[in-house]
Amino acid sequence: MAYPNVGTILDRTTRLLKQHYLRAFREEGIDISTEQWVLLDRLYSSGDASQTELANGTYKDAPTVSRIIDKLAKKKLVERRRFPNDRRRYLVCITKTGKDVHDRITPYVKDLRLRTWNGLSEDDFNRLQNILQHIRDNFEEE
To answer: Which chain positions lie within coiled-coil regions (predicted)?
Structure first.
C-alpha cells in the first residue's frame, strides 16, 4: 500500500484551522495568536500554573512556552508571580484582562470547533484521536 504524506495533510489542515482562528480573533479586535490562546485557555480553565505545567499541558517545549508567556504578559493577559516557597520559580496567572479576553473569544472558538466537526460523528472524532495517538506512539517509542 502506498501511504499518503500524512505530515503534509496534517500541516495543511493545521494551518487552515489557525487561519480561521486568527481571522475570528482579528474580527473581534483581539491581538492574540492561536498559541497564545492555547495557554490563555489552559490558565482560564485550570488555574495558575508553573511554566513546566503549562508546557506539559499544552505539548509545547519550555522555551516556546516562555516566549508565549512573555508576549501574553506584555499584553497584560497574564502575570508571573513567585512561588510562595520557592523564589526561583514563577507561577503564571491569568489577569482580569486575560479573563475578559478569554470570555470575548470563547464563543468564536466554540463556533469554530463546531464547524470543524460538522458532518462528523463522535466515533469519527474518537477514531481520529486513536490514529493520531498511534502515530505519536510510533515515534515516541524510539
So the answer is: none
